[in-house]
């Protein structure tokens, strides 16, 4: 695949790592803003991080969000000969799914669709799949095929083929999603892609890591099988998981100007590449927003663009260490809507440390020791 990179570093174990470059394109929100359709869209399809509210919901189907701000996509292939798809590499879910030729929803018409009849290695798994979003759902069925990720071939990978998709998914830039969370989160008893990589001995270490570029359209990458020292500086802080469903950790507190403004007494957080912002309980987010000088307008936390460089830092205190986000890190500027923070309210007590956080901290996901590693990104 043209997007695949395999790097062999001259280190003690001659470790080979597999890298998939991520494309940083326009998010659905940016495209809708350009067309003047954003206000209408967000009223129809409000962001709702339902997937994190109650693990019991995963018995019948997978729960997902509808996040219009996601902008990072990678290319994989499915089938023999390979059919290419762009996917979100999502540490907040566990299934792989793409649109299929059997899907007649409007959302499938502007995306690549997998054709089982054009793959000599496809097998029908005889199972249905339902992914519930905050608004609407995707339904389909499960199949097995060869999946190409970063130049390696994962054999007999179970994946979903959509037959119906909710209308808002027409605005998604990626064709589908590749989940990287734990197996017990997966719908239809599918083994996640990274688990099959480990089981089939396709990676040297049971680790993958994510680097998201801050400004450039190029440079972002998912690394399978190891850690790339070119993408971080200083030491790695290793944080044990508090739950092995998502990549869930304990945050001790959130401070601004040395004062605790949120998460007093500790709270639970997901390190999630499949969410663009930092999401938290409404009261906590409102207190952080007030402490940094933002105000609410049309559902966003808005700031004066001239004040960004003088805004106070938000500090997440995790496992005895401080992870600092400066104003220029947590504020984004839109040519249509000015400057807004990457802080988002939810009705859940579970926090989500999304791409706003991951752009600042190179994130390492260690399945061997069930830990998350965080290091200052270069």
From TrEMBL:
Task of the protein: Shows particularly broad specificity; although bonds involving phenylalanine and leucine are preferred, many others are also cleaved to some extent.
Keyword Disulfide bond assigned: yes
InterPro entries per UniProt: Aspartic_peptidase_A1, Aspartic_peptidase_AS, Aspartic_peptidase_N, PEPTIDASE_A1, Peptidase_aspartic_dom_sf
An example Gene Ontology biological process: digestion
Entry GO MF terms: aspartic-type endopeptidase activity
Name of this protein: pepsin A
Disulfide bonds, paired cysteine numbers: 103-108, 263-267, 305-339
Organism of origin: Esox lucius (Northern pike)
Residue ranges of domain Peptidase A1 in the record: 72-375
Family matches, as SUPFAM superfamilies: Acid proteases (SSF50630)
Family of this protein: Belongs to the peptidase A1 family.
Keywords of this entry: Aspartyl protease, Digestion, Disulfide bond, Hydrolase, Protease, Signal
E.C. number(s) listed in UniProt: 3.4.23.1
Domain of life: Eukaryota
Active site: 90, 272
Organism ancestry: Eukaryota, Metazoa, Chordata, Craniata, Vertebrata
Leader sequence segment: 1-16
């Amino acid at each position: 695949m043209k997007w695949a990179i395999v790097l062999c570093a001259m280190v003690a174990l001659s470790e080979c790592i597999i890298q998939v470059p991520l494309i940083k394109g326009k998010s659905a929100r940016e495209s809708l803003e350009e067309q003047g359709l954003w206000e209408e869209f967000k009223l129809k399809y409000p962001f709702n991080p339902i997937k994190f509210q109650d693990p019991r919901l995963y018995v019948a189907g997978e729960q997902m969000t509808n996040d219009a701000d996601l902008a990072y996509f990678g290319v994989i292939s499915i089938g023999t000969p390979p059919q290419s798809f762009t996917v979100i590499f999502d540490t907040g879910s566990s299934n792989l799914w793409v649109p299929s030729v059997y899907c007649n929803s409007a959302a499938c018409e502007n995306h690549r669709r997998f054709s089982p009849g054009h793959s000599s290695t496809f097998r029908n798994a005889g199972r249905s799949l339902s992914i519930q979003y905050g608004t609407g759902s995707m339904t389909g069925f499960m199949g097995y095929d060869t999946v190409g990720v970063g130049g390696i071939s994962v054999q007999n990978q179970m994946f979903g083929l959509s037959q119906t998709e909710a209308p808002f998914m027409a605005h998604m830039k990626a064709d589908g999603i590749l989940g990287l969370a734990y197996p017990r989160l997966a719908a239809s008893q599918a083994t996640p892609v990274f688990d099959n990589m480990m089981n089939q001995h396709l990676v040297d270490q049971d680790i993958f890591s994510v680097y998201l570029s801050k400004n450039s359209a190029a440079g972002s990458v998912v690394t399978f099988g190891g850690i790339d020292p070119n993408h971080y500086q200083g030491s790695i802080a290793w944080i044990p998981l508090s739950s092995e469903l998502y990549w869930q950790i304990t945050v001790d507190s959130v401070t601004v100007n040395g004062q605790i403004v949120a998460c007093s007494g500790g709270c639970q957080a997901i390190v999630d590449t499949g969410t663009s912002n930092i999401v938290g309980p409404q009261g906590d987010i409102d207190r952080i927003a007030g402490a940094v000088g933002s105000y609410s307008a049309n559902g966003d936390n808005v700031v004066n663009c001239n004040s960004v460089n003088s805004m106070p830092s938000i500090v997440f205190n995790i496992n005895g260490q401080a992870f600092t986000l400066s104003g220029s890190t947590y504020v984004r500027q839109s040519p249509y809507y000015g400057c807004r923070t990457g802080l988002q309210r939810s009705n859940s007590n579970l926090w989500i440390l999304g791409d706003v956080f991951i752009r600042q901290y190179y994130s390492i996901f260690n399945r061997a020791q069930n830990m998350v590693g965080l290091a200052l990104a270069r």
